[in-house]
Every structure is written in structure tokens, then in C-alpha cells.
């Protein structure tokens, strides 16, 4: 089983090729650059590093959000395009789950993506070696409200992103989507024609439009 895995949800970029659930090659970057400029090139690079032909890919796994509206959309679009081109299944995974498993944390992990104005995209998972339990489902929530629900856990944030919430202790994490495949139940088989980003909230433009109706 050859899997191509893509995460363009935020500033960081994670592209990997797994063979039978184990990482064969991966590229993880953590700097500000438009993913539309680099994603396709990095897909080609990981395939070359792993000595795998594009036609040998059996499935695609893509992070479907939450995160940057533009970033998530780029990954989804490329995943759908390749899925149709190669006639292979496309699976999705929460971008928060990608963060939760990227640092090999065991126990309660709370991945966070700063959503500004005191809000976050957040969830809580109890992570074990090859299994997990979703304790708090991914949601858009005020950080103070989320943290009040949690007694003991490791908060995970990418410190290279802008952090506006009031948080004292957290562990830095750079997303590595190659790590998600060991948790098969976190992967959702999608209809490529119907696959859409999971933003968890409407955009400001959509909200303004609704307010004016």
C-alpha cells in the first residue's frame, strides 16, 4: 500500500509518501510561502526520494481543515485532482489530529490553531501507540472556554505561527502528516466530487453577507 499524504492547512507544509503505513519519504517546511507555489514540486520530490512512480500510489490522504481558508483549499484541490487523475481513493483527516500525533505525545493531547480574537480551533485526543480516543471533537471555540474543560493535557501549538491567545505553557509542534496513517480510524474515505474543506466556521465575508441579508 503506497499512500501520498498532504497537509497545507496552515503556514507549515507537510508532504509524505508512506509504504505500508511507514514513512518512505517526507518533506516538512515551516516558513511563509504560498503552498500553491511549492506543493506540486514537493510531491514530485518525495516520490523521487522514495523511488516511487506516481502511477504506483494507491491512495491519497489529505488534511481537510480547520486552518487557513486558502491553505486548506489548496491541499483539497490537489488531492481531488490526483485522485481523479489516478483513479484512486481519497481519504481525509482532521488538521488538528495531524498536530496531535506529530510529536509522539502519549496521553491527552490538545492541538490548537490560533483563530484570533481569543478563539482557537481545538480538540482533545487521548493518544496511545496505535490507537486514540477523541475526548473533545474539533471545534471553533473561545480558548478560555476550552481550557476550562481540561484538567490535565499537553497543549500543542506551532510556535512559528502567530499566537494571540493567552497561554502560558504549550509544546511546539510542526505537523507531520506521515504519522497519521497508523491511526486508520482517523481517516475518512471521501467521495472526491463531494470533498470540501472543514473550516469549522464561516468566513468573515460570508458572515458579513449573512448579517446584511
UniProtKB/TrEMBL annotation:
UniProt signal peptide: none
Domain Gcp-like: 32-147
UniProt-listed Pfam families: TsaD (PF00814)
Alphabetical list of SUPFAM superfamilies matching this protein: Actin-like ATPase domain
InterPro entries given in the database record: ATPase_NBD, Gcp-like_dom, T6A_TsaB
Official protein name in the record: tRNA (Adenosine(37)-N6)-threonylcarbamoyltransferase complex dimerization subunit type 1 TsaB
Species the sequence originates in: Jeotgalicoccus nanhaiensis
Classification lineage: Bacteria, Bacillati, Bacillota, Bacilli, Bacillales
Amino acid at each position: 500500500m503506497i499512500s501520498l499524504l498532504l497537509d497545507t492547512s496552515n503556514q507549515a507544509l507537510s508532504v509524505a509518501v508512506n509504504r505500508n503505513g511507514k514513512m518512505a519519504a517526507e518533506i516538512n517546511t515551516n516558513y511563509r510561502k504560498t503552498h500553491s507555489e511549492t506543493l506540486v514540486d514537493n510531491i514530485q520530490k518525495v516520490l523521487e526520494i522514495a523511488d516511487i512512480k506516481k502511477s504506483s500510489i494507491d491512495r491519497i490522504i489529505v488534511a481537510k481543515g480547520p486552518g487557513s481558508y486558502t491553505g486548506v483549499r489548496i491541499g483539497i484541490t490537489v488531492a481531488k485532482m490526483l485522485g481523479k487523475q489516478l483513479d484512486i481513493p481519497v481519504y481525509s483527516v482532521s488538521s488538528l489530529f495531524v498536530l496531535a500525533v506529530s510529536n509522539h505525545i502519549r496521553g491527552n493531547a490538545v492541538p490548537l490553531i490560533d483563530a484570533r480574537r481569543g478563539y482557537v480551533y481545538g480538540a482533545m485526543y487521548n493518544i496511545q501507540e496505535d490507537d486514540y480516543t477523541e475526548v473533545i471533537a474539533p471545534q471553533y471555540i473561545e480558548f478560555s472556554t476550552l481550557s476550562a474543560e481540561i484538567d490535565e493535557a499537553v497543549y500543542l501549538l506551532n510556535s512559528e505561527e502567530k499566537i494571540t491567545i493567552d497561554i502560558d505553557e504549550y509544546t511546539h509542534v510542526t505537523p507531520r502528516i506521515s504519522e497519521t496513517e497508523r491511526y486508520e480510524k482517523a481517516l475518512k474515505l471521501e467521495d472526491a466530487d463531494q470533498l470540501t474543506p472543514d473550516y469549522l466556521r464561516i468566513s468573515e465575508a460570508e458572515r458579513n453577507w449573512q448579517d446584511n441579508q
